Please model this.
Amino acid sequence: MRDVFFVDTTLRDAHQSLLATRMSTEEMLPILKTIDKTGYQSLEVWGGATFDSCIRFLDEDPWERLRTIRKNIKHTELQMLLRGQNVVGYKNYADDVLELFVKKAIKNGLDRIRTFDALNDLRNLEKSIEYTKKYKGHIQVAICFTTSPFHTLEYYSSLVDSILNYEPDSICIKDMAGLLTPKISYDLVKMIKTKKEIPVEMHTHCTVGTGELSYLSAFEAGADLFDTACSSLSGASSQPAVESFYYSFKEYPETRCHLNAENFLEISDYFEGVRQKHAHDDVNIKHMDLRVLSSQVPGGMLSNLYSQLKKQNAMHRLNDVMAEIPSVRKDLGYPPLVTPTSQIVGVQAVLNVLTGKRYSRITKETEQYVKGHYGKPPADIDPDLKSAIVKNPSDVIDCRPADLIPPQLPEMRKLLGSFVEKDEDLLSIALFGDLALNFLKEKYYGRIGIDESLADMVENGVYPAV
Model:
């Protein structure tokens, strides 16, 4: 008998991809107990852009969201998406920040951590793997799938060999832009399973219309787990619908799918109502977006790109930006487009288009990327771009980037003193600086006040860890 399991992404990646991560905890609460009875292997509820969005847009404490979901989910495991050494931010953080984050995430209710690095540079995953094991979590290492002249099956085979040396509990094929095809999916799963009988999870998006076909092919190759969303928050730039695959897979002989289908309609109807409340943020994709085949823009990036261009009254330049993204990606050595490289490439592409002259303005993040501070790119960076940015060859690093970051928490504890009593609040400030500091001041500490000199120090960047 073969067991096939499903992971629900509705509470994280689905609304990140479709609704710019604007679903609130309050909107999740009424349906949690029904989801808990549905039989998912796990629920992806945290990480990705949710941490940032809770503080920046929703006036919510992301740690409280996790605790609240945990209190209401009694029978299903919870998981998060961790950006390796970037944690849930957009740059590398010190090892002590990463370790405390993993420790507190598991203590606050997480069972599984999916860790990835945007460049598939495993040096940036070493510590997240180590710490998740240390605090007794399930560690899943994700392969960021992309296509380029350098991303061959041989490349991925070598990458899997290196991943297996870390002895993860499972492996995820993470297709953040929906680029997988049925043949590639089959070949990747078979390749992994030939090396080791380890659980393989599939993650894709439906943006170009091949997501469902790729899942079926991966199933036939022996994949064990599938990321899906409820039908009303599935498809387009989100994940495939759970309903379709439950009814398809269970017809195969000797296959158990472990889901209670009687809950599907209630869950889908509920989130249809939630989605209607977010019509302003909805990417509202009505058909396959074939531009993604060349631009490789992932679901979460696509919804936020739409939102950003709308705010700048520049939606009429969308096609120009989508055409520029693959050119910038090539110049930067074909990085997979997932946070933070998706933001680095996307913002640089927008600047190239809106300024009218490529690289007339180079972001600080692009500069740091070229100098090696995000890790090793899959291919060589364009020599002209590199020479324009790197004035001194010694500015380029080739070590694990976090090796150059001293411990950040001791000085931060000293600076913040009694203002921050919880490690969770300390971590929020370590990751998001004055954004989190101001949020915590208003949310929890406003009644007791705050030393204005402390706020000034953090906001002005005097404290180096922020």
Summary: The beta strands are 2-3, 5-8, 42-47, 77-82, 112-115, 138-144, 170-174, 200-203, 225-228, 255-256. The radius of gyration is 21 Å. The mean pLDDT is 91. The longest helix spans residues 423-445.
